[in-house]
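dumping the sequnces here before i forget
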Amino acid sequence: MKAKYSITRGCTFCGTCIYECPVKAISMTVNGAVIDQKKCTGCGRCYKNCASEAIEQIISPEEDAGKKIASE
Amino acid sequence: MKNTHEIVNDGVVEPKRTLPVDGSYDVIVVGGGMAGIGAGIAAARSGCKTIILERESALGGLATLGLVNIPLDFVCGIGQEMFDKLEAINGLWHRNSDPEKHKLLLDRMVKQAGCDLLLVTHVVDSIVRNNAICGVVVESKGGRKALLGKRVIDCSGDADAAFFAGCECMQGRLSDGKNQACSLEFRLGGVDWDAYMNSSLKATDFAWIRLIEEKASQDWKQVAEIENHKNWITHVPGRPEHSRMDEISICFAHSRNCKPLDNKDLTRMYLEGREQANLLWQFIKSNVPGFEQCWMIDTAPLLGVRESRRVTGEYVVKGWDIVTHARFDDVITMSTHGIDVHNPDGQGNQKWIKAEINGKTCYPVVSMTGFGSSTFPPGGRDALCDAQGRTGKEAVLDPGAPSYDIPYRSLVPLKVDNLLVAGRCLSAEFEAQAGCRLVMCCLNMGEAAGTAAGLSLKHNISPRQVDRIELQKTLIAHGCNIGQNGRTIPGVTGK
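..and the predicted 3d for all of it:
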């Protein structure tokens, strides 16, 4: 499973990520834009185009597990 | 005894004179901001002998000289090319651009397109014969001169050439004619962006609203008075040439009750803007994590005027068109920005309009992005509604960032021929204009106008008569996105 993205810090409601997402995984709420993790493919276009840098990459559980094994 | 002028009761009489003609062009582009870039490059590439006339010392307008280094809206055509080239020189980060690299790139793109350029040259009048514009008058260190042009594209932002040519123009909001507030951006260097992004301030109060309120009682009262909305920060990351320290542009300063077409008030705003910037950067340095070592690099050489004159064109884009995500057969570009009005005479940012729906006063938004307002109508947030007037849970608001069309007719002024406009001076109502003024939208309008001017010359017809289907097919062939993949444009696509 690829790493995904989440809107975590200071969305300014510009809507650019919503336009950029090729799978329409992002929608606007009263509290800002939200990425549907089930639809997100991890392409990163939202992250790259967020002028406010409000989007973070979330490490997937598998990758996280992989890291843990590597460091043990 | 030397007498240069007669001084009479009502003024000073200038002697009549004949102006030297400094060049004859197919297309004259007034203004070298983002709209002018799109227009000049498009016209030159369609084979027109083209010149861009720019008042300032560099190209890019507010996107470079205004430090509004946040090129939002649709990226396609010439805009896509500009993005690719900016990225190749490490001048684009997320959707933030490096103003210095951008300026240099634009110099090169204009030259490579074979478009002529005059900087520090101010268009001060239009030449009209038989109801058609046929040139402009410029002032520069070289004196007052005329330039002749078969077509003129007004990308001045203030619709100067259109106004001088006698076109009808609109200004300010309908109720009292007041213009949107202006902002003088400033840039800080020596910022530790990672420290800021990882701070609890960023996590809990990213718009600094509580911080400003808290500090207002401790000597920083004036900051609270200036503050307008979720202040925009644009970030250009630290690089080796900048000792790895980050650069931030900030839209924080606001000048209200402004007259952006009055040199006295423009002077007031530059002075006020610099005083505000001086206060604000020290506030930021003292109170915001990550900014402890920062310094002010510069205040913008160009004041951020959001709205001044809008031309009255063949079609006037309405706030209601934006709310209903209007589709026009003669679409030449789109925007997703929505309503975005900076309060003319007070604090606050408004992403809704007032409208009559079924005989009732309602406050529709374009989509959920409307909830990004910082001020709300009577009834507060709960009063925001959809295009049918439904509020609260009943409202059917687009969860996306739906686009609305900008029609070719909004670039075509009434009355005067051979003239087009592009950029923030398009034919639109006050609230609608607020939703059509982003950097890339202006560039796209410019590309459409430049392409249309080329077609009008090719067929020896007025720009008013250009076949919108031919224009649209040409734009699409040049890589423009006019919505052709998502809907039917009669005569152009089928869907």
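The two ends of chain B are 78 Å apart (CA to CA).
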